UniProtKB/TrEMBL annotation:
Pathway terms, separated by semicolons: Polyol metabolism; glycerol degradation via glycerol kinase pathway; sn-glycerol 3-phosphate from glycerol: step 1/1
Species: Halobellus limi
Binding site for ADP: 14, 18, 278, 322, 422, 426
Keywords, sorted A to Z: ATP-binding, Glycerol metabolism, Kinase, Nucleotide-binding, Transferase
Gene Ontology MF terms in the entry: ATP binding; glycerol kinase activity
Record's protein name: Glycerol kinase
Upper lineage: Archaea, Methanobacteriati, Methanobacteriota, Stenosarchaea group, Halobacteria
Length: 511
């Protein structure tokens, strides 16, 4: 009898690392998760320890396989999905990071971005990379690391040696996918979707851009090789003498939001999804055309299969949504995320309260790095239920901001929006989202679509799955939420926009 095989997916996110094993029907058969420390050295700075992330990755892979009684040799391939812009620099020979990973949420390079804007370089960057210049992306993080890496982590290197070693190719730069591929296979590789989030990559030529590398003083010698998201030639294989004890192809990688697009089988132009995680990220497939946004959206690479043109996407990046629910927990307004739904339902409205969760600035379509979290409309009668409901409503309003920009840019009216991520378990939020955006919200049966997308990419590369059509047959609806437009939706959305105005340009340095 032939041994049953599976595909594994490493889902390395902002708050933790998950490993899920999927069968041929796209169903999860093993799952393990581990959180890692969030490091805040200074206000606005966010870091992770790359070595902790790697240790957790090996731990969740072992635990998932052990719990399900699956041997590593039964894995036909491994795919990787990751928090995208988070930046790591490490020693090529030893594999030791020179500093903590700088997380996508980190704002330490805001001044550098504002200098670029004053110099009039924002249009050039936008045209080449599809990105709005922002501290969110990896370029200024890499620049900062090369100039400021803490010598304590440099293995007796002097700080002034860091740039010299980078120019000699002795140091590696990459987003978290590159770090994990290197640790798994010894190869220094990234995929086109993650490369497209660095602000160093020409999304039209699908190549590192020399002028951008010069602008940010990032040596080409430290860059990873850029490969398709689903790579028939494989990125590499795991070491049979390593922690897995088996030689498993690592054959697919996608940034987390592109992975969710792929996992939601949004393979055709006009297909759209929204993922509710720490932030929310809405992507619409635009096919082989890189649509330029006139409304504050990003143009990004959606995915690429071996031997095929890249598929592009428009993206609306909302920095804080699920993290706003965590903030409610931090303030002890709720005991756990599930409580938010019951509290929100317990009142008929927010009683005029609006929460703008701009804790790390505002992303699309506003792009204000100095915006900060704001609560407006409170009275002596405001209760925690109103604040909780207003926080959930802020998620729906931010998504409408993006949806309207996306429709304007693409000329495509949304007929439905596929949703995934932890927050979509909240039926109140899903219905609210349908009502506010005015479109059908579709929730799939398998909600771990980010990991599923990475598994699909790797599995296609090794012929575990034969075609995109076969993947579409795996996708099944759990529930659909039809819009019920209340008379006051437009009025409330207008008041939301006024609240956003009050949050803008708040975090100014004191003179």
């Amino acid at each position: 009898m032939k041994e049953r095989t599976y595909v594994g997916a490493i889902d390395q996110g902002t708050t933790g690392t998950r490993f899920i094993v999927f069968d041929h029907g796209g169903q999860p058969v093993a799952n393990a998760y581990e959180t890692h420390e969030q490091i805040y050295p200074e206000p606005g700075w966010v870091e992770h320890d790359p070595e902790e992330i790697w240790d957790n990755t090996t731990a969740v892979i072992r635990r998932a396989l052990d719990d399900a009684g699956i041997d590593a040799s039964q894995l036909a391939a491994i795919g990787i999905t990751n928090q995208r812009e988070t930046t790591v620099v490490w020693d090529r020979e030893s594999g030791t990071p020179v500093y903590n990973a700088i997380v996508w949420q980190d704002r330490r390079t805001t001044d550098r971005i504002e200098a670029l804007e004053r110099e009039g370089k924002d249009a050039w960057i936008r045209e080449t990379t599809g990105l709005e210049p922002d501290a969110y992306f990896a370029a200024t993080k890499a620049e900062w690391l090369l100039e400021n890496a803490d010598p304590i982590k440099l293995q007796r290197m002097r700080p002034e040696d860091v740039r010299d070693r980078a120019e000699e190719g002795e140091l590696c730069f990459g987003t978290v996918d590159s770090w994990l591929i290197y640790k798994l296979t010894g190869e220094h590789v990234t995929d086109v979707t993650n490369a497209s989030r660095t602000m160093l990559f020409d999304i039209h030529e699908l190549a590192w851009d020399d002028d951008l590398l010069a602008e940010f003083d990032v040596p080409r010698a430290m860059l990873p090789e850029v490969r398709p998201s689903s790579d028939d030639e494989r990125y590499g294989t795991t070491d049979p003498d390593g922690f897995l004890g088996a030689e498993v192809p690592v054959a697919g990688a996608l940034g987390d939001q592109q992975a969710a697009l792929f996992g939601q089988t949004c393979f055709d132009a006009g297909d759209a999804k929204n993922t509710y995680g720490t932030g929310s990220f809405m992507l619409m497939n635009t096919g082989e055309e890189a649509v330029t946004s006139e409304n504050g959206l990003l143009t990004t690479v959606g995915f690429q299969r071996s031997g095929e043109p890249a598929q592009y996407a428009l993206e609306g990046s909302i920095f804080i949504t699920g993290a706003a629910i965590e903030w409610l927990e931090d303030l002890t307004l709720i005991d756990d995320p599930a409580e938010s739904e019951a509290l929100a339902r317990s009142v008929d409205s927010t009683d005029g309260v609006y929460v703008v969760p701009a804790f790390t600035g505002l992303g699309a379509p506003h792009w204000d790095q100095r915006a900060r979290g704001t609560i407006v409309g409170m009275t002596r009668g405001t209760r925690r239920e109103h604040v909780v409901r207003a926080t959930l409503e802020s998620i729906a309003y931010q998504t409408r901001d993006v949806a309207e920009a996306m429709t304007e840019d693409s000329g495509i009216e949304l007929t439905d929006l596929r949703v995934d991520g932890g927050a979509v378990k909240n039926n109140f939020l899903c219905q609210l989202q349908a009502d506010v955006v005015g479109t059908e919200i579709v929730r799939p049966e398998v909600d771990e679509t980010t990991a599923l997308g990475a598994a699909y990419a790797a599995g296609l590369a090794v012929d575990y799955w034969e075609s995109l059509e076969g993947l579409r047959e795996n996708w099944h609806v759990d529930r659909e939420f039809e819009p019920d437009r209340a008379d006051d939706v437009e009025e409330r959305y207008g008041r939301w926009q006024e609240a956003v105005e009050r949050s803008l340009d708040w975090a100014r340095d004191e003179e």
